[in-house]
Amino acid sequence: MKEKKTMEFMGAILGAIIGLAIMNTVPLWLHLTNGVLLESWVNILWAVNLSFAVQIAGNFTLAIYRPARLYTFMQAIFVATGLIGVIVFYTVFPLDFSVIVGNWLNQLIKVILIIAMVGASIGIIVNLVRTVLGTEYAPAMQKAGGNTSAIEE
User: Fold this and answer.
1) Residue 23 near residue 48 (C-beta atoms within 8 A)
2) Which residue of 3, 38, 41, 91 has the lowest C-beta tally within 10 Å?
3) Is residue 64 part of a domain?
């Protein structure tokens, strides 16, 4: 795996801070959404805030100290807190697109959220196994013996 640089972790922290600010200001412009965003949006904020806070703290830690096992363990933690956010979002579902395009979009988003939950669950397991075994992620091109110099540059 290409070694991540400190600035990449700092960029992830900045992105999480921006995401945190946006998600927490949504209730201020709820009245502009024509009923698509519901008042129950505030009920998901604890899970979203938890996920962003863990990403900020984890990326700060990885910016300073990042052995391979800690990196893969932190990836599992990031995915786990993201999974909590997706589960809470699915349960509360603070959106209602039926006022604009019909209920089919609500159903489609719920199916996508279920797929995301399955994918996140698999991601948690994979990262925890990698942490225990001490194996690092290697891109498919490297596994196949291909030339990755153009990809990594």
Assistant:
1) yes
2) 3
3) yes
